[in-house]
């Protein structure tokens, strides 16, 4: 999922403070000389801020990966099994298990006779694979945290304007695995404004299906949760 292009709010500003954006992003008319200089400076500062943030995230990920390597230690030595030494024909038709079947049928097979786990199924390999996947999922879910507090808009309606308050999963929804963005709108999308009170598309105050997802800056009914790919 590509990272969105957000413009970070000033640390001392509230969501209703004016925010400078490049004229081509939001379709505003071209600014004057002084305003253009200010907008260019703000844009450069935003870029520097994003680059620094990405660099810090990468350094943190690298450090965590090194800590995991130290935790798991060196990979134990592996002795090729009968399955590894079997020909492709024997692997295709499971010919390498014939001796084990004969011993089992005769009732003479013992625990020592059983083949050890293969390289791809032994505990060390599967544990590391699971660990990498779990932490990759956690990292992906936290990747958006740095954009909370940024100005966003609804992709289909560039005239909309709001502030990103939360990114996560709504456990009580019909799509609990869909990553959604909780936005407090100044100018909500049209379908949200026109939705009937109490409907699924209606604006809310950060509470969805009885679950408090985020706290809006002001106690109002001007929030919504939309898929992250629909905001920018």
TrEMBL record:
SUPFAM superfamilies: Cap-Gly domain. The gene is LgpgpA. InterPro entries: CAP-Gly_dom_sf, CAP-Gly_domain. Residues 148-232 form the CAP-Gly domain. It comes from Leishmania guyanensis. This is p-glycoprotein. SMART domains: CAP_GLY.
